[in-house]
Amino acid sequence: MESVEDIFESSLNLEETHFNEGYKEGYQHGLATGKEEARQVGLKTGFEVGEELGFYRGCVDVWNAAIRVDPSRFSTRIQKSVKEMGGLIEKYPLSEPEDESVEEIMGSLRLKFRVIRAG
């Protein structure tokens, strides 16, 4: 009679068994999907940061060339800001994206750019 009880017991546990299997499969699928989504977001963000840094580098190079040709074209304050902006670009930790200073540097670059553009 014990074998009949075993059969019924497995039937009673069927819902819990399926729930646990579904949870495990869903969890594994979520891990794989989450990693891929995180990779895509990281690539997009990295590209955007690189694009912005490249834009600022190009602006600094053009401004420095203009300053070399005609130093009187820009005020000393603007020339100083251009030099500081170049230093910030060089200081940006490209190989360490999790460095805590990246947001501070980007904020400073954006501010310097606005100052130069307004001058």
Automatic annotation (TrEMBL):
InterPro entries: Essential_protein_Yae1_N, LTO1_adapter. Residues 22-60 form the Essential protein Yae1 N-terminal domain. It comes from the Eukaryota. It holds the Pfam family Yae1_N. Belongs to the LTO1 family. This is Protein ORAOV1 homolog. It comes from Rhizophora mucronata. The lineage of its organism: Eukaryota, Viridiplantae, Streptophyta, Embryophyta, Tracheophyta.
